[in-house]
Amino acid sequence: AYASVFRAMNRNTGKWYALKVVRRRHAPSLQERELKALSREVEILRQLKHPNICKLKRAFPGSGNGDICM
User: Fold this and answer.
1) Helix (H, G, I), strand (E, B) or coil at 25
2) Model confidence pLDDT, tens digit, residues 4-62
Protein backbone atom coordinates (compact mmCIF):
# COMPACT_ATOMS: atom_id res chain seq x y z
CA ALA A 1 0.00 0.00 0.00
CA TYR A 2 1.13 3.49 -0.69
CA ALA A 3 0.37 6.21 1.82
CA SER A 4 0.61 9.98 1.85
CA VAL A 5 0.28 12.24 4.87
CA PHE A 6 -1.40 15.60 4.57
CA ARG A 7 -1.89 18.48 6.96
CA ALA A 8 -5.64 18.96 7.41
CA MET A 9 -7.66 21.51 9.37
CA ASN A 10 -11.02 20.91 11.01
CA ARG A 11 -13.01 23.88 9.74
CA ASN A 12 -15.36 23.87 12.75
CA THR A 13 -12.66 23.97 15.44
CA GLY A 14 -9.65 25.33 13.55
CA LYS A 15 -7.45 22.48 14.86
CA TRP A 16 -4.77 20.97 12.63
CA TYR A 17 -4.35 17.23 12.17
CA ALA A 18 -2.23 14.80 10.19
CA LEU A 19 -4.35 12.85 7.69
CA LYS A 20 -2.79 9.61 6.42
CA VAL A 21 -4.36 8.41 3.17
CA VAL A 22 -3.55 4.81 2.21
CA ARG A 23 -4.25 4.11 -1.46
CA ARG A 24 -5.53 0.61 -2.09
CA ARG A 25 -4.68 -1.37 -5.19
CA HIS A 26 -7.33 -2.96 -7.36
CA ALA A 27 -6.22 -6.61 -7.11
CA PRO A 28 -8.56 -8.38 -4.63
CA SER A 29 -5.85 -10.47 -2.93
CA LEU A 30 -3.62 -7.45 -2.36
CA GLN A 31 -6.55 -5.37 -1.22
CA GLU A 32 -7.52 -7.95 1.42
CA ARG A 33 -3.97 -8.11 2.73
CA GLU A 34 -3.73 -4.30 2.78
CA LEU A 35 -7.05 -4.03 4.65
CA LYS A 36 -5.75 -6.42 7.33
CA ALA A 37 -2.54 -4.40 7.67
CA LEU A 38 -4.49 -1.14 7.89
CA SER A 39 -6.83 -2.60 10.52
CA ARG A 40 -3.82 -3.78 12.52
CA GLU A 41 -2.22 -0.32 12.30
CA VAL A 42 -5.42 1.37 13.50
CA GLU A 43 -5.75 -1.05 16.43
CA ILE A 44 -2.13 -0.45 17.48
CA LEU A 45 -2.55 3.34 17.22
CA ARG A 46 -5.68 3.17 19.40
CA GLN A 47 -3.69 1.48 22.16
CA LEU A 48 -0.55 3.63 22.02
CA LYS A 49 -0.08 6.47 24.46
CA HIS A 50 3.33 8.08 23.92
CA PRO A 51 4.39 11.75 23.67
CA ASN A 52 6.39 11.13 20.46
CA ILE A 53 3.67 9.22 18.59
CA CYS A 54 0.62 10.89 17.07
CA LYS A 55 -2.61 9.92 18.80
CA LEU A 56 -5.31 8.37 16.63
CA LYS A 57 -8.31 10.67 16.40
CA ARG A 58 -10.46 8.84 13.85
CA ALA A 59 -10.27 6.18 11.14
CA PHE A 60 -12.44 6.19 8.03
CA PRO A 61 -12.65 2.54 6.91
CA GLY A 62 -15.56 2.96 4.49
CA SER A 63 -13.88 5.49 2.21
CA GLY A 64 -12.37 4.48 -1.13
CA ASN A 65 -8.94 4.71 0.48
CA GLY A 66 -7.89 3.94 4.02
CA ASP A 67 -7.95 7.28 5.85
CA ILE A 68 -6.51 7.76 9.33
CA CYS A 69 -6.76 11.08 11.18
CA MET A 70 -4.07 11.70 13.81
Assistant:
1) coil
2) 889 989 899 999 988 888 776 654 555 777 778 888 888 888 898 888 888 888 887 66
This prediction's pTM: 0.69
List of long-range contacts for 43-47, beta carbons under 8 Å, 24+ apart? 45/70
Q: Which residues, at least 6 apart from 4, have a Cβ–Cβ distance to it below 8 Å?
A: 20, 21, 23
Main-chain dihedrals φ then ψ at residue 10, nearest 5 degrees: -80, 115
Task: Read off φ and ψ for residue 36, nearest 5 degrees.
Answer: -65, -40
Cβ partners under 8 Å of residue 18, min gap 6? 5, 6, 7, 8, 54, 69, 70
How far is 10 from 63, CA to CA, in rounded Å? 18
What is the identity of the amino acid at 1?
A
